[in-house]
Amino acid sequence: MTKNFIRVGTVGLGLAGMVQAQNEADALDQSFMASDKPMTSMSSLADRVSFGSYGEFHAQFGDGDDNVDLHRLVLLANLQITDKLKFVTETEFEHALYHAMQGDKSTDLKIEIEQAYFNYALNDSLDINAGIQLIPAGIINDVHEPTTFYGVERPNVEKYIIPTTWWEAGVGIVKKYDSGLQIDVLAHTGLDMTSEGYVRSGRPKLTKSDYEQTNSWAVTARAKYTGIAGVELAGTVQYQYDASSEVSGNQSSILTEAHAIYRKGGFQFRALGAYWDLDNFDAGDSNDAQWGYYLEPSYAIDTDYGRVGAFTRFSHYDYVNSSSESTQIREYAIGVNYWPTDELVFKVDYVNADKPGKNDENINLGFGWYF
Q: What superkingdom does the record give (predicted)?
């Protein structure tokens, strides 16, 4: 019953958004004919370049592998080429320092170009973009800076089902309406999962060898509505062609996702559901449907020493893990965030994960920044 509700609801929201994108052909033609002069009002290159950074340290203690990790350090650089054309980049250094407390110190450094795309504003309400960019699905995939969410780790439903953080090479359009509706349509490279259908493993991250072995491509459409103060409603539908090069034939797959965010004063409530319909994987029907949802209420107050917020999160998800086993998990989390300034956050949480045959408990500590 839960899976059917998630699937039907998310398909409806996503398809409603796709219909709105059909009316923009004339606007595209007219905008390309308009002049787009360099930004002569800017005195130098420095005036057109902006820099930023975000990152986070994590520590975990409990039933997992106790560790301390500089999970990520991200450098942002944007160039406003003309008044309509912008170049956006995001370079990420992951696990620059990893210390497993039950073993030897080790380094597992990864360097990734997470975003590198051009955005052209055809007019005030219609953009076209091309390059390496984030897939418009879920809450965290779009906005994942550590100061913007509760908990040390990102929600596991978005991590394993969507799977956050997920970026591909593609071309897309973004249309915004005065009513608060936004439509995103993106054609892009696709996942290449294991033969058992482990979704998270399918992010090839533009590795040349992976794309030489697969014909995978995908189309994603999202409708997002923010026309009511404090409310965000969104739904995504994605069609994925040949989601695994390890399996013969085409593994045509569909991702549907929907979420809602409500904010009033210091109170916030987040709810998200996502569902994968995967075809023709080696593990058979048991791994063809992977799904999850979570509910997260939170409350924050301002003090003389910064902002303090508490949250709890219930998650329920069924996915194929790295051991290629179908695993259904019920997860409970509770924790506190403390923001001494808007750019810095300290976090602590407790997570209890009820898995088949065992129950894991962990305490996580972390701090992050975004400026």
A: Bacteria
Burial grade of 208 (CB within 10 A; 0-12, 13-18, 19 or more): exposed
Q: Residue 14 carries which DSSP code?
A: H
- The secondary structure of 287-346 as a DSSP string is GTEEEEEEEEEEEEEEETTEEEEEEEEEEEEEEE-TTS-EEEEEEEEEEEEEEEETTEEE
**Per residue in 112-154, pLDDT tens?**
899 999 999 999 999 999 999 999 999 999 999 999 999 999 9
Extract the tokens encoding 253. Answer: 């797959």
What is the rounded CA–CA span in Å between residue 179 and residue 183? 12
Handedness of CA 2, 6, 9, 12 (dihedral sign): negative
Q: Which pairing describes strands 49-62 and 167-176: parallel, antiparallel, or unpaired?
A: unpaired
Q: pLDDT tens digits, residue range 184-195? A: 999 999 998 887
Residue 197 has pLDDT above 90, yes or no: no
Distance between CA atoms of residues 158 and 354, nearest Å:
18
Please answer whether residues 125 and 176 qualify as being in contact, where contact means their C-beta atoms are separated by less than 8 angstroms.
yes
158-191 residues labelled b (16+ CB within 10 A) or e (exposed): bbbbbbbbbbbebebbbbbeeeebbbbbbebbbb
2-33+48-370: CATH topology is Porin (2.40.160)
- 72-115 residue pLDDT tens: 999 999 999 999 999 999 999 887 665 554 455 555 677 889 99
> Would you call 149 helix, strand, or coil by DSSP?
coil
pTM of the model: 0.84
